[in-house]
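Whether sequence alone determines local backbone shape is best considered at the level of individual chains. Part of our work consisted of pairing the sequence of a single chain with a tokenised description of its backbone. This step matters because it turns folding into a mapping between discrete strings. For completeness, the protein is quoted in full, as a sequence line and a line of structure tokens:

_____
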Amino acid sequence: MKQYPDEASDVTVTFNDGEVKVYRISANTSIGGWLAREAGASGVLSLFNKEQSWGIPLSSVREWSIAAAPKEPPQKRGRK
């Protein structure tokens, strides 16, 4: 099984009614082209991360974008 870097991206989806939701996926932004091709072919924007998945019908989406998720700072270790 191919190993991928542990990266995350935020996919911002604006729905036809104006609602905006952000979905965190476990992939870097280079997956954007694949997401666009698959959504165009299937009519569904399919988003995945380690814990859950979403299938969003394109008929309900006005626009979507993908951006690198902010990196969380490393946890500080306390002294004993």
Remarks:
- Helices lie at 32-42.
